[in-house]
Design a protein that fits this description.
Length: about 80
């Protein structure tokens, strides 16, 4: 059942992309690059949730000095990486 759902979602997205190409609408893609060697061991701030969604974590320092994490989701036409 899940395989059928995935196939239908892919087919719907393909048809939607063809429609957008015909209309000439701008599409936005996101690439999450691999960590650099000097970044190994650090917290990852951008992760791919699925093929259309990415989650960005922003770490801020509050007034009292404690770290605060703010997570946000962003939708794209495609997410790579």
């Amino acid at each position: 059942l899940e395989a059928l759902l995935q196939a239908e979602c892919s087919n719907r997205k393909r048809c939607h992309n063809e429609l957008l190409d015909l209309k000439g609408q701008v599409r936005v893609f996101c690439r999450i690059r691999p960590l650099l060697l000097r970044e190994k061991g650090q917290e990852i701030v951008a992760t791919s949730k699925d093929e259309y969604t990415t989650e960005v974590t922003r770490i801020q320092t509050s007034v009292d000095g404690s770290p605060k994490k703010d997570k946000r989701l962003a939708q794209f036409d495609a997410v790579f990486g």
